[in-house]
């Protein structure tokens, strides 16, 4: 499996990298935190690490560390705007539960 992007997420990443004037793609991972156990970590990738797993979808590279991949394998990243709020959203088939605030998840 892999990490995929919706058209909205791909356009957001491409636009942000173009505005920054640098970047290779999106870096996606997880860290232990929150009331449910794990939280997503999203950054723009300016370099590639030797152990990175690299997926490409809709012209955007997604860099994932090997420790995070089992927790997010098969995830689709979306980008949504609701009023003044905008954020990446994750459709992760591995999730068993989420906290009420939506900031953390369990597998």
Give a nutshell description of this structure.
The protein has one domain: Hypothetical Protein Aq_1857, Chain: A. Strand 2 (25-33) and strand 3 (37-45) form a beta hairpin.
Structural overview:
The chain is α/β, with parallel strands linked by helices and 107 residues long. It has one domain (4-106): HesB-like domain (Hypothetical Protein Aq_1857, Chain: A). Helix content is 17%, strand content 45%. The chain is built from two helices and nine strands, in the order βαββββαββββ. The protein has helices at 7-20, 69-72; strands at residues 4-5, 25-33, 37-45, 53-57, 60-64, 76-82, 85-91, 97-98, 105-106. It has a four-stranded mixed β-sheet. Strand 6 (76-82) and strand 7 (85-91) form a beta hairpin. The longest helix is centred in the N-terminal third of the chain and has 14 residues, at 7-20. The radius of gyration is 14 Å and the shape is globular. The two termini are 17 Å apart. The mean pLDDT is 89.
């Amino acid at each position: 499996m892999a990490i995929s992007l919706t058209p909205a997420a791909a356009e957001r990443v491409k636009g942000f990298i173009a505005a920054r004037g640098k970047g290779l793609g999106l870096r996606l991972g997880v860290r232990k935190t929150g009331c449910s156990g794990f939280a997503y970590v999203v950054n723009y990738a300016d370099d590639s690490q030797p152990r990175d797993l690299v997926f490409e979808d809709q012209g955007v590279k997604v860099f994932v560390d090997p420790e995070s991949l089992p927790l997010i394998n098969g995830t689709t990243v979306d980008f949504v705007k609701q009023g003044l709020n905008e954020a990446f959203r994750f459709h992760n088939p591995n999730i068993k539960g989420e906290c009420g605030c939506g900031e953390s998840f369990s597998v």
